Amino acid sequence: MPRLAIHRLSMSHPGDLSALETLLAAGKLRAADIRAVIGKTEGNGGLNDFTRGFFTQSLMLLLSAHTGDPPDALAARVPCVLSGGTEGALSPHYLVFSAAEHAAPGQRGLAIGTAFSQPTPAREIGRESQVRAVAQAVRAAMAQAGIARTQDVALVQVKAPCAQAPDAAARSTDPRVLMALSRAAAAFGVGVALGDIAPDRATESAMLRDLTLFSNRASISSGIEVTANEVVVFGTAEGWAPGIAAGVAPMRDLLDLAGVQAALAAAPGEVLGVIAKGEPDRSGAIRGHRHTMLGDTDLDPQRHLRGALGAIVAAVAGDGRVFVSGGAEHQGPPGGGLVCVFARSP
Amino acid sequence: MPRLAIHRLSMSHPGDLSALETLLAAGKLRAADIRAVIGKTEGNGGLNDFTRGFFTQSLMLLLSAHTGDPPDALAARVPCVLSGGTEGALSPHYLVFSAAEHAAPGQRGLAIGTAFSQPTPAREIGRESQVRAVAQAVRAAMAQAGIARTQDVALVQVKAPCAQAPDAAARSTDPRVLMALSRAAAAFGVGVALGDIAPDRATESAMLRDLTLFSNRASISSGIEVTANEVVVFGTAEGWAPGIAAGVAPMRDLLDLAGVQAALAAAPGEVLGVIAKGEPDRSGAIRGHRHTMLGDTDLDPQRHLRGALGAIVAAVAGDGRVFVSGGAEHQGPPGGGLVCVFARSP
Amino acid sequence: MPRLAIHRLSMSHPGDLSALETLLAAGKLRAADIRAVIGKTEGNGGLNDFTRGFFTQSLMLLLSAHTGDPPDALAARVPCVLSGGTEGALSPHYLVFSAAEHAAPGQRGLAIGTAFSQPTPAREIGRESQVRAVAQAVRAAMAQAGIARTQDVALVQVKAPCAQAPDAAARSTDPRVLMALSRAAAAFGVGVALGDIAPDRATESAMLRDLTLFSNRASISSGIEVTANEVVVFGTAEGWAPGIAAGVAPMRDLLDLAGVQAALAAAPGEVLGVIAKGEPDRSGAIRGHRHTMLGDTDLDPQRHLRGALGAIVAAVAGDGRVFVSGGAEHQGPPGGGLVCVFARSP
Amino acid sequence: MPRLAIHRLSMSHPGDLSALETLLAAGKLRAADIRAVIGKTEGNGGLNDFTRGFFTQSLMLLLSAHTGDPPDALAARVPCVLSGGTEGALSPHYLVFSAAEHAAPGQRGLAIGTAFSQPTPAREIGRESQVRAVAQAVRAAMAQAGIARTQDVALVQVKAPCAQAPDAAARSTDPRVLMALSRAAAAFGVGVALGDIAPDRATESAMLRDLTLFSNRASISSGIEVTANEVVVFGTAEGWAPGIAAGVAPMRDLLDLAGVQAALAAAPGEVLGVIAKGEPDRSGAIRGHRHTMLGDTDLDPQRHLRGALGAIVAAVAGDGRVFVSGGAEHQGPPGGGLVCVFARSP
């Protein structure tokens, strides 16, 4: 039976995998056991953020050196979900999720499962075909992990594709819009797979429009450095060693301190990793007071958002190593989001 | 005897004083009673932030229309301390401090006093002469308010001058450096006046270098739109009506949630205004983890800082209308800052 | 008969009208003769650029002091067309266009005419009603100037309104999109009035889509600081003193140096002012080579564009005081633009 | 005898070396013949620009696959001089310089020579030891190329090291200042080696201060992705095949169109590559008119500069593939720079 391990590692720049290299060299972790990497690089998080591609290339080179598998094969098997942008209090870091064999039958613990959809070309992004592809990948990842019931899923992290220069066959030729549509479709896919969103409502026309549709267990990033939907599912399953818990709580708005505290309370013990999603409230106001995130020509809304949300979560956690990703379409209530805490059970 | 009143008002853009105009027109506030304005406009907070000048011009025009005094005379009498930058969760707003006559002798309450130094030309910025000028203005403002003892001072807010294109006679020809020196000298002036910094240590060479020297009751902004040091002192004094309290607490670092909570706890009741200062830790790390605020070519360190600090304070206060100003040199421990909460006593 | 005069004045910040004040005080210019102001302030040129509002307020206060008319009345009569953003080689400045009486009958020279449309609320922006309103204002301005024929028009400069937070009745709730629609509708209005665009093709659905429709004599800015379409027409008319020429030439793409040189050649003599429009080529490439203006999360496309176009025009003119405005939808061929040079005839 | 070849290649992102891969695969270029790469990636050109490291890693991996040498050994032998920032009209691209054997003795042509200094740690940056190290590397590169006389050198391109977080032993703990000092020291080194700057004047105290000291044949970039000074020298030498010319001309200020035209005129024929250096005039004005490049909190001075200079050079060349690098300290007159054109002789 497998046992999940989480290593939270720092980096001095987006191509710096030395912390992981040290672990591998010391035999504290086997490269072949690595199931997924979720990390925060110090780019701008937008279309022209190449820190994600740089990190991914460096990671796969390192894993290739240790496993003998070619980098491309590894990239097609190990999801590497990166979000650029460490504004404010945030600190560049990455979480390495591994699953090693462990002799302790009959137990139940936090499990990880991964899956890749078929490549999603630009013309399929934001379409119902992407919704179905993501839903299917979520189910595949659950099956791989042995998570039997949708209610046992704690969080689904997806890296969804985008296109730098979408052509006329795409739903939008504006790559920023396409990026949002990709997140929306992936969130719908997660919601459908988990039963949080009714399949017949997860339509193209509802994407980015019907904000009552959301899954508070979906966390989606989008970027041009992936071509398929890469899915990582966390949840409780038979046959996994106990010892690590995942606490998830919704945030009803950006200032929902209690939501952050609830996620931490739900996973007591040594914190191993924190994931948060949020978005600038589209109404232009938070609790009745105007914010300026959406109309700033010099500072991207997502950079505004990550700096604010990241600082709140980091202040509660007492640690800047928080994975914060903007663009929370259909991943929580409008203007809100979610927080997921991984902790070693006390 | 006077009674301090605080109005926290929103604006739809930096030239929008309509909320104050409504109060004045309705007779809820007399223009002549206004003693100081402290506000947060939605610029970038840097050298080329003209939202502060726009707001000040609009404010003085409005007060002129209501008092009959020329705008220039009002600007030389009513401190208007603005900080640009409402990153993240922050909301553009301004605090109007007024003192109306009030018949209730023998009481003790929160007092306000104001003073302007002589104009400080570029060559005097960051010099010991500026330290002395600010210290003298602090004492004058305390005297005006009737604050007898330095320990009765809660907070000193200063708007210190800068120069857009300092010449060779200035301590630095780099206006950004001069801006920091102006904050440092003003903080030294406050510290000397309050006894928080020994006068003989408040030297030019110690500015921006000896970070053990600070006053946790100093909050300094700097900008090119003022030519003198404008000082506003808050503290407890005889002869002022009770009813408003100021709670001040230091933040030991950017993630010091407890510090923010302490300031709010120190001034229970309906919050009327919040002021916070902080700075990116110059060591490049917070609690041992690297931050990226100081090396971002695209996003100014102060914009990073305000977005993060503002969000933390706003989350605790439950309201984005927080005055957050970066550049906390000598206004708290390195990498830390302060929070001041004004509240109507319950 | 009137004689057009153009003063090109510098400013040290967006509220600095001292150069104009000096001219007025010295009697070199009568405030009542000022017909329009076209200027370049040092903001970011986007939704949150308040340098335009600051300048306008300062200008109208100055004119009010000299004419006795209230600032609001002046703002409703004297078009003040500002474009924010002096990236790169550009220098903040403004052109003051005045028309004084001049006894020299029977001549023909460069004329100026101005007109304001009715206020255009957010829901009318980008609609055919705005097209008609602008076309009518162009005709009114031509009539005022005495410009008899559309072929005598050299340039129509329009400042078109936008909305900071458009509601659901607007064509787009994204204010950036609405800004572009406002420029498109205004360009259509100019094109229709001048016969450059067939009225039946100037439809809502063609805006921002049918890029074959354009007028190379239209130069449109949009901003939240105006509520009506403010129109300034330049052209040749009977009864105006000779002495100033306007040379206009299209730019077929951003690198069209010959186009810039042609505009300067068309108006030989001392240059009094230069106006240029352009846009990032939407194809993502210029002369077959990829540009990165449209996908930069940290630097707005219009800031990219103004820095590049401004430098080219300034290098040819040998002077950074060039009015450059991005967003050239329907104001020239896709990816191209126009240059207009005002010069004192030799 | 060798023959210099220059390939100007485009890339779709900073990790895209497919154009070079195609050439290598087709046998049109031998990987072992590649002597240097000079390229322009689409980052921000500052401390946190990781596009340079991403490109370098990708390049060395590709060359390793074709030569069998390890990437590290290649990186220590083949200078890869990258400048981030393709603002405005600029297009991401790279120049591949190769030298293949060629049987045509007794001729004279454009030669290339390269050299690496010893690693320069942070504490040596901006010191006279760096000046000497660069001067020695320039001489070594000249010797390698067989360039006999300093007057035969057309251009020296240097990539000089910087440090992300310099400690107290460094000349400045501000990495931005250290970056400028590294450029200054490297320019001094080039100037000393070429006889353009007297050795006894190339002192630490003169760096960034005595702007009368410069070499108009030095083009220096600085970045944290290199640890040694990487030097590429171009000049005329015996034993090299003719056919490629380098035209170099100074720019006396940013608007010096004639300077750009002179460089193009000096190397007639098909343009193979263009290199330009410049800087924002520190006086704050160009030809007497204020510019705003140095005081913009939202847009870095070098991004301003590259957008403007790049557009001017691109407009004259008719092609956006121009290597433009800001930070021209001691590489030309204050506020000016240089342009170098490589062309196939007609």
Verbal overview:
The structure is a homotetramer of 346-residue chains. The first copy, chain A, folds into three domains: 1-103, 60s Ribosomal Protein L30, Chain: A (2-Layer Sandwich); 106-242, 60s Ribosomal Protein L30, Chain: A; 244-344, Cyanuric acid hydrolase/Barbituras, RU C (60s Ribosomal Protein L30, Chain: A), CATH 3.30.1330.160. Helices cover 27% and strands 29% of the residues of chain A. The first copy, chain A, has helices at 18-25, 51-67, 71-75, 128-145, 175-194, 257-266, 301-317, and strands at 2-10, 34-41, 80-84, 93-101, 108-119, 153-161, 218-223, 228-238, 244-251, 270-278, 285-286, 289-290, 323-326, 337-344. In chain A, helix 4 packs across helix 5 (175-194) and helix 6 packs across helix 7. The two termini of chain A are 22 Å apart. At the A-B interface, strand 11, strand 12 and helix 7 of A face strand 11, strand 12 and helix 7 of B.
N-to-C span of chain A: 22 Å
Topology-level CATH name of the largest domain in chain A: 60s Ribosomal Protein L30, Chain: A
Question: What proportion of the residues of chain A form beta strands (DSSP E)?
Answer: 25-35%
Q: What is the architecture of the largest domain in chain A at the second tier of CATH? A: 2-Layer Sandwich
Instruction: Kindly give the count of domains of chain A.
Output: 3
Helix and strand run of chain A: EHEHHEEEHEHEEEHEEEHEE
The count of strands of chain A amounts to: 14
Low-confidence segments of chain A: none
Indicate the radius of gyration of chain A in whole angstroms.
19 Å
Helix content of chain A: 25-40%
* Silhouette of chain A: globular
Q: Multimeric state of these chains?
A: homotetramer
